[in-house]
Structure formats: C-alpha cells, structure tokens
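HUMAN: You are asked to prepare a plain-text protein record giving the amino acid sequence and the backbone structure tokens, both parts labelled.

ASSISTANT:
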Amino acid sequence: MILKAPFPWFGGKSRAADLIWPRLGNTPNYVEPFFGSGAVLLRRPHAAGNEIVNDLDCYVANAWRAVKLAPEETAGFCDWPVNEADLHARHRWLHGRAEFRERMKNEPDFYDSRIAGYWIWGLSCWIGDNFCRPKNQEALPHLTGGKGVARQVPHLTGGQGVARQVPHLTGGKGNAMTIEDISSAPSASPEGRSRGGAQSVAIQVPRLRAGGGGVQIESGDDKQSRQTENLIAWFNQLSSRLRHTKVVCGSWERVCTKASTYGQGLTAVLLDPPYDAGDSHDDVYGDMSRGISAPVREWAIEAGKNPLMRVALCGYEGEHQMPPDWDCIQWKASGGYASAAGNAENSSRERIWFSPHCLNPEPNLL
C-alpha cells in the first residue's frame, strides 16, 4: 500500500521515489537526514530494515514520533473543522512552546501528541509557505503588508482540516487515495457528473443508501464519523509502517556518522537538504536553509567513495558539481507547491545525483 504524510510539504519527493529506490536497492540500513514528509520512505517498495530518519525542525520530528507512538490520540487532535480564528490561535500557541522545543532537542523519546495534531491540522489548512515554519519562532501570522492575510487564510474547500487529505482506505483498492483524488475522478452516477464544465465533488454530495424501505440521505454526523474512522485508520497504518523507524531530531550530521551508516553494513542515504536557491527557500526554511547545501555535498562526495554506501543527493540543476563517476537524472515535480506561482520553472530544474556504488538499472542518464 502506498502511504503518504498527513500534511503537505514544500519540496516533497513523492514523484521521485520510483526513480530513487531502483538505484538505492533493498539495503539493510537506510538513513534520511532531512526527512520532512517522508515521501520516499513511505513509498519504499520492499520491507523495512533498519531505518533512521532525522529532521532539525522539532515540529516535524514530533509529528512523526507522535504518529508512530500515539496514532489515535494524534488523529483526534487533527480531527477539527476549518476555523480561521483557531488557525491563527494555534499558530501562535505552537510558536510559544519553548519548553517543548528544548525537550525535543534533548530527550530522544519525548513527543507531544497535542502539538503534533495541531501542527498537522494547521499545515493542512494553511495556504502558502509552511505553517509554523522554523524561521522566527515567536512570530505571529502575517496580517498586514505585502504578503497579507490572503496568503494564509485556511483552505475552505475539499474537506475539513486534515480530513481533506484522508486516504480512501476501504473498497478493496490496493493504493491509498486522497479526498482530492476522489474529487477529481469521474463519477458513475448522474448526481456526480460535471455541470457547467466542472466536476462536482463526489465526497461532498449526500450519499444515498438503501434502508427502511426507501432511500435515506446520509446525515452530517454520518459523514463526520466516516471521516474520523478513516483518519484513525490512516494514522494507525502510518504507525505500523514506522514501528521500527528511529526518528531523530537534530542536525543532519548526527545521523551521518559511521555508527549510523556503514557501521551497520550496506547503507543507503537519501540527502534532500534545503536547496541553495536564494530567498524563495529562505521564506520556507528560514535560517535552516543557509549554508547547508555545500557541506552536505562535500560529505556526499566523500561518503560515495565507500563501497558500503549508496548515496542519493537532491538539488537543482547546476547546484552541485559532482565527480564524473556520479550519475545524474532529471525529474519534474508537479502539483502542490511545485505548481504555485513562481515555482513552475523550478519544477523542471530538479536533479538527483547517485554515487558510484548505487545500482544502475536505467540507461537513459544525463
């Protein structure tokens, strides 16, 4: 089953996963120092071995710890209707959790499911760059000036809060589907056919069901119960998938030591650092993005010489000058943030460099 994160993420690599895994192969040890939404790991085509994932953003790391260790409790805090007042209040409340941030940095087993649920819900409602981003931890939402509140009002269509992304977990389908997937699919019923050139959203129209000698309209309570059940099922599946995955919160170097990598045997490492792309990424990652790309590249070049290491490095065209024995492939991001204004050109600049000891199943390389 294909799983996905319960929140949107700038720079996710879901579309690149099918290019990455044939190169990395089924190694017994896998390390991802910049985990984010975990799109590549969640699309791993074989059974998990030893897996270590890390993110410097404590809200990211906490979300994955909470989903792993308390999935139903975390889902409960996510299960909330869209309300702009709640969105801004939770944004401000999350920024004020200074003690939480310190505990995440210093206690390897600590998590807070309420913070995780509020953060996941907020990311799913927020429009624009990342909700509760690491830049300016005490900052409030933009209410005036050039950016304006219009950039950060909640999503008002396609479902409620995080529930707008709940996969369709029933009906015998092998792959998980989001509510947006269901919305864009043609409907077989007259009620769901397009009108005026636009398709109506099947999951938002009343569901007809037989019963009591006639046809009943599903009530709002029934719909909410179904959304809640699907949300809990989704989080339980993520928890099961991450059962043996170690979730670390800190600098990327902490999981790139000998003990974490080739000291465990044959190791695959996916490096997806904040790209060195100027102010557009600074808005998303804040101070985290500055000066990261170059040292990651230098580490990758050295690690790639080791026959026990298979390294994949992500970046933009021209960002990394790699040795001639590294392979480079091009891929194109699409959807979500990649198709937002100003990002369409960047989506065609995506590159992944693979170290010499990676597998080579594809002949059409750049």
